[in-house]
Design goal:
Blueprint (H helix, E strand, L loop, with lengths): L13 H21 L3 E5 L4 H7 L12 E5 L15 H4 L4
Antiparallel strand pairs: 1-2
Length: about 90
Amino acid sequence: MRIYISSYSSDCTYFKCQYDITLVAMQLMLVAREHGYETNPMAGYDASKAAAEFGLDPEQYIPVMAISIGKPDPSEVVPDTVRYDVKDVTEFA
């Protein structure tokens, strides 16, 4: 994903921009799920190489995360996951 830096004030830091774009990414992932797609956010990639590959101007755009989007294979059996009861994993003081 990318953000347009010049639309932010000059005091906006990378982390402020990252906060905004992760909210956009969350909405994209929720909408994709609603339309039958699965998503996977990814980090740990070389952002400068990704920007170069997509021809992004480094003065205007910052790669923040990659998101894979696709339709799941309906024939694939998805294993059950373990979900803990909220009382087992939280404690309120």
